[in-house]
TrEMBL record:
EC number(s) reported in the record: 3.2.1.23
Domain Glycoside hydrolase family 2 immunoglobulin-like beta-sandwich stretches: 204-294
Subunit structure: Monomer.
Name listed for the protein in its UniProt record: beta-galactosidase
Cofactor field: Ca(2+)
Gene Ontology biological process terms in this record: lactose catabolic process
Signal peptide boundaries: 1-19
Length: 954
């Protein structure tokens, strides 16, 4: 509803100028509004593709995405050497427009929301004003005296991709992101009556104090300025007035509202100020501004406080980005991004590395996100002369957004400290100015924002006197960082008084659709695949891990205890929300069997339950009130919803062990007591039952051949091989047992025993034991199977995403299914979940291949299955290293590191305890596996497909 109301407000600006009252600002768009609704202007490109002739171009747009000019990534000068020169083409625009005759006698300005980079504007052959320099900032010109009202007018714009001002290029063109040219945000005319107010700034504090400052124009006689404070229902709840003398240029109004509803990211309550300028009984001008009552404090050595409550930022860095259109977006993309951030249970976002579209900030206001609004300056800064008007533009455009709690003065050395004072000069609320940096010693406003510290250096910084809030950490290139290592890092921040939280790098892979390369999506090597999501917001595994780790409703229980009584310990990690404002739903589910053609689970019973009254940061008990037969189901699923009915997180617990889940899957007792056929030769031993044949090599104890019950060969061979430690084969013997044929392989070394049994119905049982002492990246056994034969897999276990030792979060137990894909995280074709990887806590997994199906099951908990060859981080040598073989059955898996700040060889140990390698004490590790090569028998009928039941929660 909040977004809908805001949308109506924005749409009202788009109404025909003839329908707007003469006492209000009137808008006429010359361009389109976004990347979907564009307007064709005449266009001439001076260099690169489609250059040297007049044609047309969509406005707004990045001209490279329209087929003009040349592409550059901002770090290309590093790639191509000192003699490299950026593409510096210019774009010449022409557009004819008519101004309503009714605007005669009014002030008319032309407004550019963003143009890359130097922009010269002419109207009817006359220069509108000084050339604007700086790509990401709103600028405008008074063109009243240059217009022909009621007639055609000619707009001419010259845009230079590279600036004539060196510091502008240093700050925003030589950066770690794509460099574009063009008018990439809307262009419009705005018309004012002769007497009006502009540059309206509001400072509304949580205690109800309200201050409004406005520049008044052309007031020639005493006047009154009145601000009516309107709540969400449009009711007037307060009024401020000020007398304006003739020729005054600045007016200031104050009031105090009793018991305002404060704005926070959890309670994004907005008000509007309806400002009216009157002379005598007549209204000269009227406008409205949205705002929120909130107070920001940085208490040295204590933390960041919003409305008197300490808050910690759970955020990421967000580029304004869409693959087909670059930095030209639309409202749907802006809304999607805010919703995705909220879905990850984030409460904050940093603008990297320039101010965003106005609509994004409106949505952060209305849906609730804390914002770090950033002046461009990637690792070099604007000169004071060039930067001063850009800071002013940024502040005047964005200052009334309650979501903005900090101004960022550049990034990683891109800070001109002389500009700090300019922020404070123009910002009525005097928000703190911070300095995001990649080196220590650059704190500002009592906050150290140093980037890419590891877990242990973070501990030291948090023990210092300053507040620590890394504006970049856990760099998410490929599948590293992001959610990997976050559990330890976030607990460290959460429990540290001086932590202000932090911002992961980054939200999306900045992949651009190359119009010069047949539409491929280019991430510029390892420069831009840094996202938690792909370019079109394809969700990676880290997305879901972050959602669990950042959940403001925390339930730490991993397994249901044997005497579970239906009560869970729950922690409220909201800053302002009592848990009584949230609600929960439990479900009791049964999992589908391998013989069932469908994946997923079937809900048997469910119920919505009342949440306990639990204050922010408190811990208490949640009573589920389960039915007496709850243990008859396979699993308990608990969902938590926030006060706005959004899912916060969903937890799943099995009601028993894997042996219970395999009931009806393992049919070990053959209906016909047929004996297992044994063929023993000098070199091989073959067991056959129920048309399934398995052959062992007597020289090494490995499976050397398999035939499925369809009679076809299955290329599942060359195992078991111990993936860590030593194993020297010493012999193979077999004997009959009442329930099948047993085969025992003996070894010396770390592999202590392997025992096989073929049951009469074709199930092959494998029991093995090994013991290791020392540090190992992984432990367990492997087999080989050709990856190119695999069609897909279905499994009961955690999923659907792969895991790492230091990223076990974000997955849940269910029956999952996935087709084989070759996705390498953060690279085309961005098909998620990845098929290859480590998959956790597997009860059974069915591989579907061109040779037929085969099934693996284990009654033991904690089984990881590795599927085929993959890597987590690219580099000279992709990392981490893999076990031998193709399919591995593991008891321990490796952690993954990050691109920056921690190591050279992807050694993630500095990310915390869960990122250390596996420490083995020499204790025996035992596991049982079952194999069935073909379509398995079952003692239960396939369950029919049941359509999802519509949720009745709301």
């Amino acid at each position: 509803m909040k977004y809908f109301c805001l949308l109506l407000l924005n749409l009202s600006l788009a109404l025909s100028t003839y329908a707007q009252p003469s006492s209000q600002k009137q808008i006429q768009y010359l361009s389109g509004r976004d990347n979907r609704a564009t307007v064709k202007w005449d266009f001439y490109c001076t260099g690169g593709r489609k250059s040297g002739f007049w044609t047309t171009i969509a406005v707004p747009s990045c001209w490279e995405q329209q087929g003009f000019g040349l592409y550059n990534y901002g770090r290309d000068y590093k790639t191509y050497g000192k003699n490299f020169r950026f593409a510096d083409e210019q774009g010449l625009y022409k557009h004819s427009f008519t101004v309503p005759a009714g605007w005669r006698g009014r002030r008319v300005e032309i407004v550019f929301e963003g143009s890359m980079t130097d922009t010269e504007v002419k109207v009817n052959g006359q220069v509108a004003g000084a050339v604007h320099q700086g790509a990401f900032y709103r600028f405008k010109y008074d063109i009243t005296d240059k217009l022909k009202f009621g007639e055609a007018n000619l707009l001419e714009v010259k845009v230079s991709k590279m600036s004539a001002e060196p510091s502008v290029n240093n700050a925003e063109r030589l950066a770690d992101y794509w460099v574009f040219g063009g008018i990439f945000r809307p262009v419009y005319l705005q018309s004012y009556p002769q007497q009006y107010a502009e540059n309206i700034a509001i400072d509304a504090r949580a205690n109800g104090t309200f201050t409004l400052r406005a520049n008044v124009r052309n007031v020639k006689q005493p006047a009154q300025l009145q601000a009516d404070i309107l709540d969400a229902a449009g009711q007037t709840v307060g009024t401020a007035r000020a007398e304006v003398a003739a020729d005054d240029t600045v007016a200031r109004l104050t009031a105090t509202l009793k018991n305002p509803r404060p704005w926070t990211a959890e309670t994004p309550t907005l008000y509007r100020a309806r400002l009216t300028l009157r002379t005598g009984p007549g209204t000269q001008y009227q406008t409205t501004e949205s705002f929120g009552f909130r107070t920001i404090e940085v208490r040295r050595g204590k933390g960041i406080y919003v409305n008197g409550t300490q808050v910690k930022m759970k955020g990421t860095n967000r580029h304004s980005w869409w693959p087909e259109t670059g930095r030209t977006l639309n409202d749907s993309i802006q809304l999607m991004d805010v919703k995705l951030l909220k879905e990850m249970n984030m409460n904050a976002v940093r603008m990297s590395h320039y101010p965003p579209d106005a609509e994004f900030l409106h949505l952060c206001d209305s849906l609730g996100l804390y914002v770090l609004d950033e002046l461009a300056g990637w690792q070099k800064y604007y000169s004071t002369k060039a930067g001063t008007p850009l800071v002013r533009s940024m502040v005047e455009k964005d200052q009334n957004h309650p979501s903005i709690i900090f101004w960022d003065n550049g990034n990683e050395g891109g800070t001109n400290k002389e500009l700090d004072a300019i922020f404070y000069q123009y910002d009525l609320t005097k928000r703190p100015v911070i300095h995001p940096h990649h080196r220590p010693g650059n704190a500002a406003s009592g906050i150290d924002c140093n980037h890419y510290e590891d877990y242990y250096s973070t501990q030291k910084i948090l023990a210092d006197s300053l507040i620590y809030m890394p504006t970049e950490f856990l760099h998410s290139q490929d599948d590293g960082g992001g959610g990997a290592g976050l559990a330890d890092m976030w607990e460290l921040h959460w429990k540290s008084q001086r932590s202000g939280g932090g911002f992961l790098w980054a939200m999306v892979d900045e992949g651009i659709v190359r119009t010069d390369q047949r539409g491929i999506i280019d991430v510029n090597g390892v420069n831009a695949p840094d996202g938690l999501m792909g370019p079109h917001r394809e969700k990676e595994g880290s997305f879901f891990a972050i959602r669990e780790i950042f959940s403001p409703i925390r339930i730490g229980l991993k397994e249901l205890p044997a005497k579970f009584n239906g009560t869970l310990e729950v922690e409220n990690r909201y800053h302002f929300t009592n848990l009584s404002q949230c609600f929960f739903q439990w479900e009791l589910v049964n999992y589908r069997k391998p013989s069932d053609p469908f994946a997923g689970s079937i809900t048997g019973k469910k119920s919505r339950i009342k949440s306990p009254a639990l204050a922010p940061l408190a811990t208490g008990k949640l009573k589920l009130e389960l039915p007496k037969d709850w243990k008859n189901y396979d699993a308990l699923v608990l969902s938590a919803y926030d006060p706005f009915k959004n899912l916060v997180y969903k937890w799943t617990w099995k009601t028993g062990g894997n042996a219970k889940l395999l009931d009806g899957v393992l049919a070990l007792e053959a209906k016909a007591k047929a004996a297992v056929e044994v063929t023993d030769s000098d070199s091989t031993l073959t067991l056959k039952a129920n048309n399934i044949a398995v052959t062992f090599n007597k020289s090494n104890g490995h499976i050397s051949g398999v035939k499925g019950n369809n009679g076809d060969k299955l290329s599942f061979t060359n195992g078991p091989v111990l993936v860590a430690g030593t194993a020297a084969f010493t012999g193979l013997k077999h004997h009959a047992e009442p329930d099948g044929e047993a085969v025992e392989a003996t070894y010396t070394g770390d592999l202590k025993a392997v025992r096989w049994k073929m049951h009469a119905n074709g199930w092959l049982r494998m029991e093995y034991e090994y013991a290791l002492t020392g540090d190992y990246p992984f432990t367990g056994i492997s087999f080989t199977y050709p990856e190119n034969f695999v069609i897909g897999a279905k499994w009961l276990g955690q999923g659907p995403y792969r895991v790492w030792k230091n990223r076990l979060q974000g997955v849940s137990t269910n029956v999952w299914e996935n087709a084989n894909n070759n996705t390498q995280t953060a690279a085309a074709p961005w098909i998620y979940p990845e098929f290859k990887g480590y998959f956790a806590d597997i009860a059974w997994m069915e591989m579907n291949t061109v040779e037929g199906k085969f099934l693996i099951a284990s009654p033991d908990k904690g089984l990881f299955i590795r599927r085929f060859n993959f890597y987590g981080l690219s580099g000279v040598k992709p990392q981490p290293g893999l076990p031998t073989g193709d399919i591995s059955f593991l008891d321990a898996i490796p952690p993954i590191g990050t691109k920056l700040g921690l190591n050279i060889d992807n050694n993630p140990k500095n990310l915390g305890a869960n990122s250390e390698t596996n420490h083995l004490s020499g204790a025996p590790i035992k596991r049982t596996l079952y194999f069935y090569f073909g379509l398995p028998p079952t003692d239960s009928k396939p369950q029919p497909y049941i359509a999802p039941v519509k949720d009745d929660l709301f």
